[in-house]
Write a structure and sequence with these properties.
Shape: elongated
Low-confidence stretches: 344-389
Number of domains: 3
Mean pLDDT: 86
Radius of gyration: 30 Å
Strand order of the largest sheet: 2-3-4-1-5
Number of helices: 23
Amino acid sequence: MIEKDYYYIDKTLLIKDILEKGGQVNLFTRPRRFGKTLALTMLRTFFEAEIDRNGALKDNRHYFDGMKIMEAGEEYTRHLGQYPVIFLSLKSAKQPNFGMAYEMLKRQIKDEFDRHAYVLKTDALDEVAKERYRKICDLSAGPEEYAAALAFLSKCLEQYHDKKTIILLDEYDVPLENSYFQGFYDEMIQFIRSLFESALKTNESLEFAIITGCLRISKESIFTGLNNLEIISILNRQFAESFGFTQTEAEQILMDYGLEQRKQEMKEWYDGYLFGEVEVYNPWSVINYVKTAVFDEHAFPKPYWSNTSSNSIVKELVQHADSKVKKEIEHLIADGTIEKQVHDAESNLVNSSGAQNELSARRFFEINETKPQAQVEFSEKNILDYAGMDIWNFLFFTGYLKAVSQRFEGDTTYLTMKIPNAEIRYIYRNTIQEWFEQKIKVWDFAPMYKAIFQGDAEGFERMVKQQLSGSISYFDSEEQFYHGFLLGLLRPLQDYEVVSNRESGDGRPDIELKPYDELKPAVILEIKHVKQFPQMENGCREALKQIEEKRYAEGLLEEGYHTVMKYGICFCRKSCRIVVDV
C-alpha cells in the first residue's frame, strides 16, 4: 500500500498502544472487513527484524515515514525492526473436511518456516533442531510436530536473533466456526488447542502475541489455563480507534476525493458502529462507496459488506426464531431498540477479566465444554431456548447491531441495541425475503388457491393468517409489506398471470390474477391496512368499494374474461380479514 501510494489511513498509533497497554497475549475481536489483517501486516512490518534472501537485515523504516508513530517518541520507535515475528493466517482452514483443513494449515505453517529458513544457514540451531525444522518444511513431520510448530519456530528465532519472538495470528476463529458447520469440530479443536497452548501458554520464547478474529471463542476450548490473555472486544475503550474509520477519517476521505456533498448519505449507510465510545464507519463499505462515487457521480449506495461473508447467522436467527424473537426483529427493522444482557458469569464462558462471551447460540452447545460432547443435546429448540440470551450478543459483537446505551444491575451488564445503519438493515430485509421465498417453495399452497377460485373467503383468510403468524415483517410502509407478502404467496400459482399495480378501469388494482384460459375466473385483490383489529371489517368493505368505484373489473371484462371475482383484504399486524364479492 505504501510503495504503490494507495490511500492509507494512518493507524500506526496502534503500535504505541500495544507497547503501552497490551498484555502478553492480546485477542482483538472485530467484525469482518474492519482492518484486522491490515493491522497485523503493519505490526509485522514495524516490529520485524526481517532478513532478506541474502541474509541481510532489511530496513523497513521508510514505510513509516510521515506516520504518527514516528512522532510518538524514541521509546516507541526504538522497537522498529528489533524482533523476530511469526505471522500466520488460519483462514485457509476453511475446508469441507478435517483432512483438507489440516493439510492447508500445515502448508501455512510450512510457508512461515520457509520464510525464516535463514536460521538453517547458521550455527544458531544444532543438527537435531535443523532436521526437525526441515521435516516441517518438506511436510513430512508428524501431527504432533505441527501442533507444536509455532513454539518450536519461536525458539529457533530467539536463538538466531537473541530476542524473544512476536506471534501474530489472524482469523483464528475460522477453523473452529467452519469445522462446526462442516461436522469435524472435535478433530479441529484438538489441533488448534495444542497449537495455541504450546505457542501462547508454555512458550518461554514469546515476547507478546496478537490474535484477531470475529468471535470470542470459549476460553475453555482453546485458551485453557492461559492467564495472560487480554480480550479486547468492541466494548473496550482502549484500542477503540484502531479498527474501522472514525468520523474525522471518513470525512477526510470525502474531502480528498471531492465528495463532501455525500457526507450525509455515507453516514446513513455505513456509520453507526460504536467501539468503546468512538463512532466508527465500516471501512470496507466506505472504500467501495468512495471508489464507486469517484467513477460514477450518480451512483447509489450499495450494501458492499453484505457480499463479504455468508451472513449465515442472520439467516439462522430468522429461520429458527420463535414468535418473541421475530417480534424483536420486526421492531429492530422498524428502527426500534432492544435491551439484552451481556453475559458476565464464568458459567457463560467469560474469562477472568470479565470479557463478554460472543458465541452464537448454535456454537454455544458445541464449544461449551462443561459437558462431554455426547451429552450436549443439539436441536432447533436448543437454539431458541438460548437465542433470547446469547444470539443478540453475537449479532452485536459481529457488527449486526450497535450499542445505544448500557446499564448495570448488580454484576450484570445490559445493552440497549439497534441496527447500526441502512446497509445492515438491508441485510436483514434481504435475508428475510430470501428465507420467505425458500419457505414458499416447500409449502403446499394448492388448498389456498382452491379456496380463492371457489370464493371461499374464510378458507383463504385462514391460510393467509397461518403464513402471517410465521413471517417477519418490516414496516417502512405497512401496506407495501403486505402487498409484497401476498405477492410472494401467489407467485407459485400455475396457469395464471399474477399482475401487480397495472392500470385497469380508472386506476391500478393492487393485484390481479389473470388466467391463461379465459373461461376460468379472473381475480382482483385489493389490500388495505388498519391500526386496530375492530377496523378490519370496514377496511375490507373499503377495498371492495374501491374496486367498484374505480371500475377495476371492467378492464378484465374488456379483455374477454367471463367472470371476475373481487376480494377485499385488510391486514392488521399478524392478522387479516378477507371478504369476497363474486
